[in-house]
Amino acid sequence: MALIIDIGPLSERQSDEALEAIYKSIHNHGDDDSIWNPHESPYIRRLIELFTERGLTRLEKVRTELTAWAEGERHRKGEPVARPKGMMRRWDKGELALVKLYLKTLPPEQFTLDDWGMVVDFLVQRYLPEDELRSEAEWLATRSGLMGKVQANMQKAPTLKQADRLLAAMPNTVKDASKQFKLSPVQYAVLDFGRARAAEAVTRLSDNVRHKMRDVIMQHEEQKMLNGGAAAPGSALKTRLLDEFAVLNRDWRRIALTEAGEVANQGFIASMKPGSKLKRVEQYANACSFCRKIDGAIVEVVEPSRPLKDPDTMVWLGKTNVGRLLSPRKRVGGELIERLPEERWWIAAGVQHPFCRGTWLNLIESEPEDDPDFAEWLRNTLEKK
Ligand SMILES: [Zn+2]
Predict the structure, then answer these.
(1) Which pairing describes strands 298-301 and 314-315: parallel, antiparallel, or unpaired?
(2) How many CB atoms are located within 10 Å of the residue 91 CB?
(3) Which residues contact 265 (CB under 8 A, 6 or more apart)?
(4) Cα–ligand 1 centroid distance for 289 (angstroms)
(5) Is the pLDDT at 40 greater than 90, yes or no?
(6) What pLDDT, on the 0 to 100 scale, is given for residue 228?
(7) Cα–ligand 1 centroid distance for 3 (angstroms)
(8) Distance (Å, whole) CA 183 – CA 190
(9) Measured in angstroms, how far is the CA atom of residue 274 from the centroid of ligand 1?
(10) Residues with Cβ < 8 Å from 100, sequence gap 6 or more?
């Protein structure tokens, strides 16, 4: 069934934005459950599951605690304490305890909007503290990147048990990775950029949690006020929170899949000699049409500094789809014209887009970097009884 939309009345920019949004929506896998399938790559599967599980546990805590506060379950009889002054963004342990005491002893019917804001800040800082989220992000990026190096040095994919053994022997931070292994400058950069990107993603998510929860509470209180002070049905708040957290859980899963996949692929390429041939693998449920099209593509690893690079047959470090467009056409005046190849998506070295699960496979014509120490570490770790 054809459904036709007329974008004639829009401006050029509005038309381009609308087209791009439609194309992207097809690729973002925002609305199917295949995002929860275990990752196809045995190198990073466990990492992704552990990272997901820990994040979802944190988010679940914020949701259930906020519900409990909203229902007055956290109230304890006692001498009310003065409202802590100022709304610092970060509280230290003592301040956090003081905030909790104030909120606990404040009778629920006396909560103002500011107090509710404080409950949200308290829960976010208690269960999603920035430094811990950053450590989680670094853990994911460092180990995923090192798994890329492992893949370059292995003839065939490890069993899950072998992957676990490797994980147990890997460091948690980029700094420790560079102490434990001889990383080339580009390998180090892959890990470090991966760490920074993942850290940005998790802190953005926790900011999102804060904003969304404040919105939910504000709306809930407004309804209550309009009801003449009678509590709006608690189930409405619960349902709204469940809906919001379902989205936040998916956001966390997106970070797990996308950041791990990106660093692992880039780490792999950073560990292959130029001239190596790789095969793209995009085989998983609900792969998008772009990824299905590049499945099986054979490409050569080249230096990023090489002047003439054929984007259809070559990959290099840093080749991404960030800032590129998916829609094949753009509007010029009253017409849609083909976009230039350099404006559009190409075969990126890492993942193609958020939620993408694509990986690389080494072919016979591929050679890992020379790093005998790493090869030996790999052998020893795998063979250890
Ligand atoms: Zn795709």
Answers:
(1) parallel
(2) 19
(3) 148, 349, 350, 351, 358, 359, 360
(4) 7
(5) yes
(6) 77
(7) 24
(8) 10
(9) 26
(10) 122
| Ligand 1 centroid, distance to 37 Cα (angstroms) | 15
**Measured in angstroms, how far is the CA atom of residue 292 from the centroid of ligand 1?**
7
C-alpha 34/C-alpha 368 separation (Å) is 33
Question: Token pair for residue 104?
Answer: 């606990």
**Taking the model in full, what pTM does it have?**
0.91
* Centroid of ligand 1 to alpha carbon of 238 (angstroms): 34
Q: Give the sign of the dihedral formed by CA 29, CA 217, CA 81, CA 107.
A: negative
Other residues' Cβ atoms within 10 Å of the Cβ of residue 372: 8
Euclidean distance between CA atoms 66 and 290, whole angstroms: 41
From 335, 334, 336, 326, select the one nearest 21 (Cα to Cα).
326
What's the farthest any 2 CA atoms get from each other in the chain?
A: 75
What's the CA-to-centroid distance between 264 and ligand 1, angstroms? 17
pLDDT, tens digit (0-9, with 9 covering 90-100), for 4-24: 889 999 999 999 999 988 888
Q: In angstroms, rounded to a whole number, what is the distance separating the alpha carbons of residues 215 and 219?
A: 6
CB atoms within 10 A of CB 41: 24
pLDDT-based confidence at 311, cuts 50/70/90? Answer: very high
* Amino acid symbol at 7: I
277 three-state secondary structure: strand
**CA neighbours closer than 13 Å in the CB half-sphere of residue 169:** 19
User: In one letter, which amino acid is 292?
Assistant: R
Half-sphere exposure of 37 (CA within 13 A, CB side): 17
Give the per-residue pLDDT at 376: 95
- The confidence score (pLDDT) of residue 69 equals 92
For residue 259, report the distance from its CA to the centre of ligand 1, in Å.
15
> Tens of pLDDT along 330-345?
999 989 999 998 899 9
- Ligand 1 centroid distance, CA of 113 (Å): 43
